[in-house]
Structures are given as structure tokens and as C-alpha cells.
């Protein structure tokens, strides 16, 4: 069973009403404000599937599977009929079809993809989730659909892929795109966005550590990277405003067999559809 961990939010634009409400809570009770912040931190935004993803959505074989270790159901997408399979993992507030351009190119090059809507994301039920539920979902998907040759993750999905490999996911290679890194840094940024005092970052960390009985830094990407032997390609944009490029560079430095590919001007999401990025992914996939 995957260990419980908090979910790092990296791309949250917090409405002003929530910022005001959280700060009012902090004046009344620091414990109340901490619990309120924790709720926000673990609640993704469900977006409607955009038109550009509808083809993958309609052509995928969709199936609901039960992840027993977290007692939740998720929706999976099996795209293509090739026997060689690659796992795709979306990020926070994403969907199983979000990496559709990558999936299309992999399909044209002899691979099928398996992706999923993480708990509380896309078509999967629920309102809140945590990173360990991403990890548990990956490990259950491997049991039901694996083996996979390669795992590709974006943002929180990148962190989850690295942690899943650390926890036993068997793949030959991995690719992480715009991945977050140090959990405490993500917490600090979140508290800053809420305009709370710095002390609430530690309060939030301690709240999650007490609730789930884990050390949150154990889920930092760089720590997982230190334990991974397989080749890993780290892709990050120098101008990513949501996950700073230092995260990708630090992950790469901690990998035993890592490659780093940096881009410019693509930000956090356009990078997923860039042809140079997709070309680099295909080159990495095909290397023996």
C-alpha cells in the first residue's frame, strides 16, 4: 500500500474570496486556518475536456477500476492497440487525455498508451485527493494493465512517477516534464499565495505529517531520484512560472542515470505539445 502523503499544488490561482476567508480564519484560530488551507491544498479543479483532447477521449477504451489500497475508483484510458505500452500521468487539475499530443505521436510510432483520471480529477469521482493516491493509482494500473516499457509524467504526475518507481513500479525508462521537486518549497509557495504568515507553512506540514504519519520530504522528487537506477529524461522550461526550472535541474542532479532537456518560452503546459519536446521524447523512447 502506498504511503499517505500530501498533494503538492504547483499551479493554483487562488480566488480572492478564499484568500480573504483564510486570513479571517487565521485571526480567529490558527488551527482553523490550517485546516481550511489543508482543504484547499487537496482540492483540485475539474476542467471540462477541451476540444483538442476529444479525439483521444472518444477513441480510447475507457474503464473504471478500483484502487483497493485507497478504496477509490478511477477512470482509465487505453489508447491504441499496440502491444508495447507506455504509461502517461497527468498533473494537478489535469486529465487522462491531457498528454494527447504525446500519445498521438507514440501511437504513430508503434506504442499504445494507458492514462487515467486521478482521484477527484476528470471523470473520476471525489472532491479531494493527495499525491499518494496518484502513486497508488499508478501501482494498481501496473497490476491491471502492465507491464509498461516507459512512464511519462507531467508536473505532479512527474513527482508521482518518480515516487512510484521508488515504490516498485517496473519500467525501463521514465520521463518527467515540468515536475515539482521539494515538497516544503511547494508548501511555502502555497502559503505565500494565500497571503498567510510564513509560520503557516510549518503548521501545514505538521498537520499533514500528523494526519498521515509520514515525513513529507520523503515524497520530494529529488529523494526518489536518488534511488532510481533506470534512465530518466527530465524536461523543463526555463520560463516555467509555476514550477521553477531549478526543480528540474535539482532532480537531474540527483539521478544516477539522468538526462536534462531545457526549453525556452513554453511555460508549464505548452511544453506538452511542442514538436521539439515530442521529438526529444521519441528519441529517448527509441534509444536501446
From TrEMBL:
Mention one GO molecular function. Answer: hydrolase activity
* UniProt-listed PANTHER family: ALPHA/BETA HYDROLASE DOMAIN-CONTAINING PROTEIN, XAA-PRO DIPEPTIDYL-PEPTIDASE-RELATED
What is this protein's record name? Alpha/beta hydrolase
* Coiled-coil region(s): none
Pfam families in UniProt: Abhydrolase_1 (PF00561)
Originating organism:
Flavobacterium crocinum
Gene3D superfamilies annotated for this entry?
Answer: alpha/beta hydrolase (3.40.50.1820)
Top-level lineage group: Bacteria
Q: Which UniProt keywords apply?
A: Hydrolase
Q: Which residues form the AB hydrolase-1 domain?
A: 86-210
Amino acid at each position: 500500500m502506498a504511503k499517505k502523503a500530501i498533494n503538492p499544488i504547483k499551479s493554483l490561482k487562488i480566488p480572492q474570496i478564499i484568500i480573504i476567508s483564510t486570513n479571517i480564519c487565521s485571526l480567529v484560530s490558527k488551527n482553523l486556518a490550517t485546516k481550511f488551507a489543508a482543504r484547499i491544498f487537496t482540492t483540485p479543479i475539474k476542467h471540462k475536456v477541451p476540444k483538442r483532447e476529444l479525439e483521444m477521449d472518444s477513441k480510447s477504451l475507457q474503464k473504471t477500476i478500483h484502487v483497493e489500497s485507497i478504496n477509490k475508483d478511477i477512470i482509465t484510458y487505453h489508447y491504441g492497440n499496440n502491444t508495447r505500452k507506455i504509461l502517461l500521468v497527468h498533473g494537478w487539475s489535469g486529465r487522462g487525455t491531457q498528454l494527447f499530443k504525446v500519445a498521438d505521436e507514440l501511437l504513430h510510432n508503434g506504442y499504445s498508451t494507458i492514462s487515467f483520471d486521478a482521484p477527484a480529477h476528470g471523470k473520476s469521482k471525489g472532491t479531494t485527493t493527495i499525491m499518494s493516491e496518484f502513486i497508488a493509482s499508478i501501482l494498481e494500473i501496473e497490476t491491471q494493465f502492465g507491464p509498461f516499457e516507459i512512464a511519462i509524467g507531467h508536473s505532479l504526475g512527474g513527482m508521482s512517477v518518480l515516487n512510484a518507481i521508488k515504490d516498485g513500479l517496473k519500467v525501463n525508462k521514465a520521463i518527467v516534464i515540468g515536475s515539482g521537486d521539494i515538497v516544503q518549497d511547494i508548501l511555502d509557495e502555497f502559503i505565500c499565495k494565500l497571503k498567510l504568515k510564513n509560520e503557516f507553512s510549518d503548521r501545514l506540514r505538521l498537520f499533514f505529517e500528523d494526519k498521515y504519519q509520514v515525513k513529507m520530504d520523503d515524497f520530494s522528487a529529488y529523494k526518489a531520484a536518488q534511488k532510481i537506477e533506470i534512465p530518466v529524461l527530465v524536461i523543463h522550461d526555463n520560463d516555467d512560472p509555476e514550477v521553477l526550472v531549478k526543480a528540474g535541474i535539482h532532480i537531474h542532479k540527483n539521478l544516477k542515470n539522468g538526462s536534462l532537456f531545457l526549453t525556452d518560452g513554453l511555460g508549464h503546459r505548452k511544453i506538452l505539445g511542442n514538436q521539439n519536446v515530442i521529438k526529444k521524447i521519441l528519441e529517448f523512447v527509441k534509444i536501446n
